[in-house]
Design goal:
Length: 516
């Protein structure tokens, strides 16, 4: 079958920007890249904070000291655990409505205030003396974590050089696992050295303030997103940032003029909304943007409802089910799970620029389906035989699932929605993504501990089948963003069939193909 081709003449500014970015591009560790790497080190703290906050409870909710303080004995623990976990997702859904503040305040200011709020939430949870306060603290913490993480994901996508976007931006979410690893071993160390006292769980809860606190300080030393500045009419400031971070302090560098022309052209029809206009969601469902919004919503659901939340948040319960009941061992294995998944995510962030987003999503999701099916079979075998071999096989497939899922999904969960959204509506697009992701996580986390108690390994069978459905949807609808600047994506979505247009011959003959 002949591949579809289409004209991109009207997007010459964006095309020349991508081509110029690839010519004479500096290495990732070159002297020219160091200022940008320093900026990214600050912004990555938002992802690390998310990983710490999002996975900490899975390391401490089974600790005897925590159980004695916060979990009532009359419900078997499942209801209490479900509420404490699911309140995190309820807060994320509510906070998703605040995503347009990234347009009003700017990406940098929203990261800063998100960090401040996260610190407040961490203090509340660390000082809590009852379950209600723990729930309230987690609500505050999750609410403001969304502020910083949303703004940070948009920021890294917008400030990344075109030819390095898959690695620079994709690496952002891999730092989630750094926070997760630190959380697991902080809980392990606190339990080992302070077991039998409240410090065993209060110390890890207090450490939730560490990464957002560093983020708050760091935001005073990083620039604003150049695309946001252009959208607000502050072109000279944006050009100065492009010159410093993309042009090697050379105002005459070809990449500077090319990028500025492409960015400026993307705002020719409309600027970034201000005031109450930033809350107008109607453009998200207009003819020119509804396909993009659909992709953001699908990404939000698939990224949280593919079985990954079950494995990452409820790993201790899964280990209990296969006979691994030592609390210290469970915390340690939780940390190892995060380390192996992190390694896969780091490799995947590079491979997205070589293989492409669509192929990576498809391969990873199908492999996740197979791993989940194998996990169900091994778990069923253990329940029937209680053998060491069956227990070991179950553990292997839990870790295998984490690796194959993280390989493709972790780097692109917050970045793909930013890539497929327009410069004008990028922050508002995250409302759709956050609301759907929060809903998926809420349904998943509230139901998971109850489902694992009542239907056991059949819960894994459900996810195996659902992942197959995801593969079909990805193949039919997801667009390819590899090799295209953010502004070039406008040409893709202007085509009659964006999915076909995105996998057509690209780049056009006058382009130089790059790994972005």
């Amino acid at each position: 079958m002949k591949k579809e081709t289409f004209s991109v003449v009207e997007h010459d500014a964006a095309s020349s920007g991508a081509a110029s970015a690839a010519e004479g591009s500096p290495g990732y560790l070159s002297k020219q890249m160091r200022p940008l790497l320093a900026v990214l080190a600050v912004v990555y703290l938002a992802s690390t904070s998310c990983g710490f906050d999002g996975s900490l409870m899975s390391s401490i909710y089974t600790q005897p000291d925590y159980v004695a303080t916060f979990r009532p004995a009359n419900d078997g623990g499942a209801t209490s655990v479900s509420v404490v976990f699911s309140i995190f997702n309820i807060a994320q859904m509510v906070s998703g409505l605040c995503c347009p503040l990234a347009d009003v305040l700017g990406r940098r200011q929203m990261m800063r205030w998100g960090g401040v709020g996260t610190v407040v939430g961490g203090v509340i949870t660390a000082a809590a003396t009852n379950t209600a306060t723990i729930i309230a603290g987690r609500f505050v913490l999750a609410f403001f974590t969304v502020w910083s993480s949303t703004a940070a994901a948009i920021y890294v996508t917008e400030i990344a050089p075109t030819d390095k976007r898959s690695v620079v931006a994709g690496a952002y979410n891999t730092l989630w696992y750094v926070g997760s690893v630190v959380a697991a071993f902080a809980a392990y160390g606190a339990n080992r050295h302070f077991g039998g006292t409240a410090t065993a769980f209060r110390l890890p809860l207090a450490l939730q303030c560490m990464y957002p606190g560093l983020l708050v300080v760091g935001t005073f030393f990083i620039p604003e997103s150049p695309r946001w500045l252009v959208g607000r009419g502050r072109v000279d400031e944006a050009r100065a940032i492009i010159v410093k971070y993309h042009g090697g302090n050379d105002a005459e560098a070809p990449v500077v003029a090319a990028e500025m022309a492409a960015i400026d052209a993307s705002f020719a029809a409309a600027a970034i909304a201000t005031g109450w206009r930033a809350l107008d969601l109607r453009p998200l469902f207009g003819r020119r943007h509804r396909y993009r919004t659909m992709l953001c919503m699908l990404l939000g659901w698939f990224g949280q409802f593919s079985g990954n939340n079950v494995c990452s948040y409820y790993l201790p319960s899964m280990l209990n089910a296969v006979g691994i009941e030592s609390q210290s061992t469970q915390v340690l294995m939780n940390g190892v799970y995060s380390i192996t998944s992190w390694g896969a995510a780091v490799v995947g962030s590079y491979c997205h620029g070589v293989i492409g987003r669509r192929k990576m999503f498809l391969a990873s999701t199908m492999a996740a389906s197979v791993a989940m099916a194998a996990l169900a079979a091994a778990s069923a075998r253990f329940q029937a035989t209680a053998t060491v071999a069956a227990s070991t096989a179950t553990l292997v497939f839990i870790y295998l699932f984490g690796v194959v899922f993280s390989f493709a999904w972790t780097p692109m969960q917050p970045i793909y929605p930013a890539e497929v959204s327009s410069n004008v509506l990028r922050s508002r697009s995250f409302i759709a993504q956050q609301l759907v992701a929060g809903l998926a996580s809420f349904v998943n986390q509230y139901a998971a501990p109850i489902a694992m108690e009542r239907i056991s390994f059949w819960f894994y069978v459900f996810y195996s089948l659902w992942d197959v459905v995801e593969c079909v949807i990805i193949y039919l609808l997801f667009v390819e963003t590899k090799g295209k600047s953010l502004e070039e994506m406008d040409a893709i979505f202007a085509a009659a069939n964006p999915r076909k247009a995105s996998v057509a011959v690209w780049p056009p003959p006058h382009h130089k193909r790059t790994h972005i």
